[in-house]
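step=encode ok
step=design start
structure_in=
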């Protein structure tokens, strides 16, 4: 009974990786963020979007009335419950043409059902996820050394989460990383990722 109660009381952290590359730099960093979260007692789940079929939003607006996506019955159906029960979320993507990857963009766009809209167009809106103390950490991996060549990848991760009511605790950049698995040799970077994962959990308390 005690163990079950502890499990229910654990902070749940959902880590989502948007890289098409298996066991690449994004995957490795995501593992370290989650290990850091687990070291603070969090219950974690890792999701790699390349393993899910997620259709891009087509703007049908049916979710405004239904409250959920009724156009597609795909991988998002299993991810919506995970999002809702997780106090913290980690989103990570390599930088593709100054932006996030297509799978990550499709995932973010399919979060649209979490908005509450007025009948006015355009009009005020709110989020079903706001006011719940939700926290987020975002990160991107960039080949280039100069930060400005990363483009707006971090903003593309941060701004939608903030609009949904998340407080973003860290925008984590790993630049000058292209070769597969390069980050595994950078102990300083891995330690930073581990500590960022810990701090994400601490921020939820």
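sequence_out=
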């Amino acid at each position: 009974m005690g163990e079950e109660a502890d499990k229910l009381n654990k902070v749940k952290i959902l880590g989502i990786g948007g890289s098409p590359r298996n066991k690449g730099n994004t995957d490795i960093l995501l593992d370290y963020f989650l290990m850091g979260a687990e070291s603070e007692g969090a219950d974690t789940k890792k999701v790699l979007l390349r393993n899910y079929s997620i259709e891009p939003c087509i703007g049908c607006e049916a979710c405004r009335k239904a409250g959920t996506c009724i156009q597609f019955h795909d991988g998002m159906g299993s991810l919506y419950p995970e999002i809702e029960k997780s106090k913290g979320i980690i989103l990570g993507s390599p930088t593709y043409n100054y932006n996030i990857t297509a799978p990550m963009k499709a995932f973010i766009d399919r979060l649209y059902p979490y908005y509450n809209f007025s009948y006015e167009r355009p009009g005020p809106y709110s989020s079903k996820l706001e006011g719940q103390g939700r926290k987020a950490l975002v990160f991107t991996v960039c080949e280039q050394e100069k930060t400005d060549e990363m483009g707006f990848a971090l903003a593309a991760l941060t701004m939608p989460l903030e609009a949904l009511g998340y407080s973003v605790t860290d925008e984590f950049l790993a630049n000058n990383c292209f070769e597969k698995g390069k980050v595994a040799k950078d102990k300083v970077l891995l330690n930073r990722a581990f500590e960022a994962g810990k701090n994400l959990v601490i921020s939820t308390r």
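step=design ok
step=annotate ok -> The chain has one domain: 17-203.
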